[in-house]
C-alpha cells in the first residue's frame, strides 16, 4: 500500500526539469543545426576571402534592420508560409510532397484566367471567386498526387515534382497562347487584372493580405493537426499505415483530403502572387517559392506554428539578396548556397535526437 | 499525323532520331548512375543538383584548360564528391535518403549558380563527335548520325554494368546489400562502404551527364541548362526495371519525347510548342502510373529501396 502511495506521489509531481529537458530538445537541436549551417556558410565565404561578418550584417540590414526591409521580408514570407504548409501537411501522413511549385503556378494561372471572366462583376464576389479558382486549381494539382499515391501506389515525391514541370509547361503554353494579353510584349502575361479584383495592403504592417492569410492558415493547420480527430488519425496513419487500416481509419480519405488541402494553400499562394504582387499571371509565378517551402517545412520539423518564424527567417535571407549583390558583389545564388548549408545541417541533425544525455532524463541517473 | 504535309513525316522522324540520340545521352548516364545507387539499396534524389554542378564544373574546367575531356573528368570528380557526401550523410542513423537528396539537389544547384556566374559568357571547347552518316547523301540524315563519343561510351558502360551486376563478385555484393541488409550483414559484407561507394560512383556518372549538356548539346553553360534529367532518372530506372541495358532503351525513348517539340518546330509546326516540353514528364508520369501498384512492390526492385516499399 505504501509502495502504491509513493508511486502515485511521484507521478503526481512530475519533475519539471525532466519535462523541460525533453521539450527543449525539439527546439535546441534544430537551432544548433541552423547555427551550424550558418557557420558552414561563413566558412565558405571566409575561404574565398569574403567577410562573413559583413555578410551577416548585410543580411540583418536587408532583411530585418529597417522598416522598409521588414516590409520586404514580410511580403516574401507570405508565399513561403503557404508553400511550407504544402509540404508539412502531407508530411503528417508520412508523404514527402515536394512539388508545391506546381500548385503555386497552377493557382496563379487559374486566378489570372478567372480574373478575365470576373472583371466588371460585383467586386466582393469577384475577389472570392478568383481566390477560389486559385485554391481549387492547387487542390486538384496536389490532390492528384494523393490520389495517384492512394489508388496506384505512385511515389508522391516523384509524381509531385513531375507535375510541377508539367504545370510550368502548361503555364507557358497558356500565357504564350490562349490567355496571352496582346499588350504584354516583353513578358507574355495574362491580361492585367481589374483594379477592383486586386488585393490591397493591410493598414499595418504595410504588406498585402496574403501575409495575414498565411499566418492564419498556419494556426488553422496547427489546430487541424493537433486538436482534431482528423489530425490524430493522420498521425496514426503516418506512423503506421497498416495499423491505421486495421483500426478502420479512412486512410484513403485522409490522404486525398490532406493532399488537396495542402495544394489548396499553395494555390492560394499563387493567387496572392497574381492578385497582390504581379497583377497578372506570368513566368514570375515559378520563382522557386515552392522549393524554398520544402526547406521551411523541414526546418520547422513540419510543425505548422514553427513555420511562421522559419518562413520569416528565410524570407529575410531572400530579401537581403539584392543588397548582398550590390555591396559585396555576391551572386544572387549565394542565398541558395546558404539554404543548402542549413538544409543539410538540419537533416543531419536528425541523427542526434534521443542520443544526448542532456535531453534524456531517464539517463541522468546512470552517470 | 495527317496534319503534316507530304514529306514532312520523314523529316520529323529523322529529326527525332537525331534528337533522340543527342538528348538521350545525359539521360543514359544519369540513369545508369541512379541505377547503380539504387542497386545498393539507396535512392539519390540529389542527382539533379549533381548534374547541374557537373555541367558547370565541366564547362569551367574545359574553358580554363582548353580541353573538353579534362572538363568531363572534372565533372566526374565533382559528381563523385557529391555522391560521397550523400552516401556518408545517409549512413548516419535515422537520416532519410530522400530528404538528403532534396537538400543536396538545392545545394548543388546553389553552388553551381554561385560559381558559374563568371562562365556564362566565355566559350569553352566542345566534345568531338563521330560521323556515322558518311554513307548517306541526305544532309539531314548525316546531321542526325553525327554521334557524340560519350553516347557510345554510355552504351559500352551500360553493357559493362549489366555484366558486372550479373556475373561478378562486386555485382553480387552490391545486389545482396541492396536486397537485404540483414543477409549482407550476415555474410560479413561492409554495408556502409558498399553503399557509399555505389552512391559516389553513381554521382560521378551524373556529373558526366552534366558535362555532356554543357560541352556538347546544347553546348553552353547557363542556369537553365538542365530540364530535370536528374529527377527523371529515378523514373527511368523504374521503367528500366533496374536493368542497365534497359536504361539505354528508356533513355532513347525519353530522348525522343524530348526531341518531339524541336523536331516539329523544325518543319514549321509551332502550335502547342510549349506543351511539347511537357512530353517527357507526361511520359514519365504515365510510366509510373502504369508500373506502380498499391498492393505489391515492383518486380525487379532492390528490397532495401525505400521508394518502392
How would you describe this protein?
The complex is a heterodimer of chains A (367) and B (309). The longest helix of chain A has 32 residues, at 16-47. Chain A is globular and about 75 Å long. In chain A, 72% of the residues lie in helices and 0% in strands. With 367 residues, chain A is an all-alpha fold. Chain A is built from 15 helices and no strands. Chain A has a domain at 88-294. Chain A has helices at residues 2-12, 16-47, 52-65, 67-91, 100-118, 123-152, 156-176, 210-227, 229-239, 241-246, 251-278, 289-299, 304-319, 321-328, 334-348. Chain B is an all-alpha fold. Chain B has a single domain (8-130, 146-308), classed as ABC transporter involved in vitamin B12 uptake, BtuC. Chain B has helices spanning 8-39, 47-65, 68-90, 97-116, 139-144, 149-167, 169-179, 181-186, 191-215, 229-239, 244-266, 273-276, 279-291, and strands spanning 129-131, 146-148. Chain B has a two-stranded antiparallel sheet. The longest helix of chain B is centred in the N-terminal third of the chain and has 32 residues, at 8-39. Chain B is globular. Chain B starts with 7 loop residues before the first helix and ends in an 18-residue tail after the last helix. In chain B, 55% of the residues are buried. The model of chain B has no long low-confidence stretch (mean pLDDT 88).
